[in-house]
Amino acid sequence: MDATTILKIKPALTRFLNKFDDCFARSQTRGHLMTYVQGQLGPLPRKSIEPIADAAGTPPRTLQEFLSLSRWDETMMRDRLQQRISRRHHDDHAVGIIDETSFIKKGDKTACVQRQHCGAAGKVENCVISVHLGYATPGISDFHTQLDGELYLPQTTWHENRVRCTAAGIPDDVVYRTKHAIALDQYRRAVGNGVRFAWLTFDEFYGRNTAFLREFDGIGQNYVAEVPVNFHVWTKRPQVLHRRHANELNEPGRPRIYPRLKVQNNPTSSVKQVLGHSPKMRPVAWTNYRVKDGSKGPMVWQVKHLQVYLKDDHGLPACGGRSYHLLVARNALDPSEVKFFISNAPESAAVETMLLVAFSRWKIERIFEDSKMELGMDHFEARKFTAISRHLLISCMSHLFLAEFRQEHATSDSSEDRGEKGADAKPNCHGAEHAGRDLVQRRSLFTPACRNHQRAIDYNATPQCQSRQEPPQTNHPKITRNWYHLEKLETMSVGTDLAL
Fold first, then answer.
1. What is the pLDDT of residue 55?
2. DSSP code at position 311
3. Is residue 359 part of a domain?
4. How far is CA 85 from CA 136, 245, 400, 457, in A?
C-alpha cells in the first residue's frame, strides 16, 4: 500500500461512518464508533476493547459502556448497512450465502455460551455460535461482505433459564429460535432493505431441512443447497391419487386420506443410493469442471446431474410434483470426497451455473477468516448479550468499509493502467464480449435462471411451487451448455495493515 492510499483511508472512513450518524443520539457516542472501527482496521495484534482504547488514548471503561450501556439504534444501523449494499453493490447475479461461525470462550458467564460443536475447533467445545448472511457478486468486481450476524441462543441451557439470561443481559423478547429460523429472518430483513439475490447457497446443515427449503420455494428464491448423503429423493415422479375410486366407497374400516400416493410407486432413496444404484444415474457420465484455481493449481470436480423429486411433510411430492436438480460432485484428485447438491432452479438452468453457485460458499469462509484475523471479530471479551451483538454489527461495518475501499482502489488502479473506466470492464448478463482481453473467451455463468427472476424478490410473488402451470417465458435468456470450465475466482485479501 503506497503513501497516497494511506492518506485516503482516514477521509474515506470518516465519510463512510458519517452515513450512520443518525443512529446515535449524541455526538460523543458517534466518536466512540470511529475509535472502535479504527482499532479494528489498525495494526493492533489484539483487537479487544482494552488495546483499542489504549491505542486511542480513551479509558477502556468508556468503550465498554459504548458497547453495553450507551443508547444507539442497532436496528437502524443494520438497515442502513444493508441499504448501502443494495444501492452501491447491486448485481443481477448476486449470491446470498448462509453460514455460521463460532467463538471459543471459557467459563459459563458469556451470553449464549455452552458446550456444542465448534467449527473453529473442529470438535465439541465451549463456544458461542452466530448465524450470518453473506453477500457476494461474481465476475470482475468479486465483491463479498457480511449483511447480517446474530447470536444463537441455545434452548435448554439458556432459553429455559431466564434467570441466567437476565444475568447475561439477554432481553426477555430474545427467545430460542432454530438456526434455520434465524437465517430466514436475516434473509427477510435483507430483502426488506432492498437487497436482491439471484441465488442462495448454504451447507448441508441447512440443506437437510426440507421445510427450510420449501420456505424459499414459496417465496420464489432460487437456491443451491448442499445435502447430506441420507437426503431422500424420488428419481421418478410419483403418482398421486386425489379422490376415491368407485370400488372403494363400500370398503369397511377407516376411510383413506386423500390425496395420497399410489401403492405402485417406488419408495424414496437416499442420494448416496441414487449415485450407486439408480438405473437413471449410473449411465450418466462424469463431466469435469474447473471450479477455481487454488494455490496448488486448478480445482477440478467431476459432476453427474439428474432431475429428482422431493417429499413434503405429508409424504407427497413437494411443490405439486415439480422437479429439482440433483448434482453429485466428486474431487477429481480424491474420488472419495463426494458432495451432493439440490437446486430448485428451472430445468433449463445450466449445470455450470449451479455448480459455480454451490462452490461460492468459500467466499463466506473468507469473510469469516478476514473478519477474525484482520478485524478481530473473535477477539471480543464482553460477556453481555448487547455488547456482543453490537460488536458483531460493527465488525460487519468494518468489513464492508474495507471491502469497498479495496474494490475502489483496485478498480481505479486497473483503470489507470488500461486507460479506461473500471465499470467498462464488467461483463454484462449476456456475455463478456465487452470485457477486457483476458475475459474474451469467457461468458457470464450467472445468466438469470429464475423462471420469474423479478418475482423472486417479492413476498407477494407467486410461489415457485405453482410455476409449473405457467407457460414458459419467451424472452427468457437462453442458457447453453457448451462450456465446461467454470471461471476463475480470485480471493479478496484484506490482510494489509491500515495506518489510520
1. 92
2. B
3. no
4. 11, 57, 8, 16
Residue 395, SS3?
A: helix
pLDDT, tens digit (0-9, with 9 covering 90-100), for 271-308: 999 999 999 999 999 999 998 777 777 889 999 999 99
> Given this model, what pLDDT does residue 409 score?
77
Is the domain of 323 the same as that of 430? no
User: Do residue 145 and residue 8 come from a single domain?
Assistant: yes
**What integer pLDDT is reported at residue 249 of this predicted model?**
53
Cell output for 223: 437456491
Angstrom distance (rounded) from CA 180 to CA 203 = 12
Is residue 282 a part of any domain in this protein?
A: yes
Q: State the sign of the Cα–Cα–Cα–Cα dihedral 403, 408, 414, 420.
A: positive
Neighbours of 107 (CB within 10 A): 8
Same domain, 317 and 180: no
From 299, 327, 343, the end of a domain falls on 343
258 shares its domain with 167: no
CA distance 226 to 238: 23
| pLDDT of amino acid 408 | 83
Long-range contacts at 49-54 (CB < 8 A, ≥ 24 apart): 49/380, 49/381, 49/382, 50/381
Residues of the chain with pLDDT under 50: 1, 414-462, 467-500
Task: Supply the pLDDT for residue 429.
Answer: 31
In a domain, 357, yes or no: no
Number of domains in the chain: 2
230 domain-assigned = yes
**How far apart, in whole angstroms, are the C-alpha atoms of residue 391 and residue 385?**
10
Distance CA 392, CA 106 (A): 19
- pLDDT score for 483: 34
Give the residue among 37, 6, 12, 33 at the shortest CA–CA distance from 22.
33
Q: What is the pLDDT of residue 10?
A: 87
- Give residue 82's domain range: 1-202+371-500
What is the structure's pLDDT at 480? 34
Q: Same domain for 197 and 258?
A: no
> In the Cβ-directed half-sphere of 2, how many Cα atoms lie within 13 Å?
4
Residue 478 three-state SS: coil
- Same domain for 141 and 36: yes
Residue 59 shares a structural domain with residue 116? yes
Q: What are phi and psi of 485, to 5 degrees?
A: -135, 125
Kindly list the distances between the CA atom of residue 123 and the CA atoms of 43, 91, 119, 158, 299, in Å, as whole numbers in the listed order.
Answer: 31, 37, 7, 21, 27
Same domain, 170 and 76: yes
Burial class of residue 378, CB neighbours in 10 A (0-12, 13-18, 19+): buried
**According to the model, what pLDDT value does residue 195 have?**
96
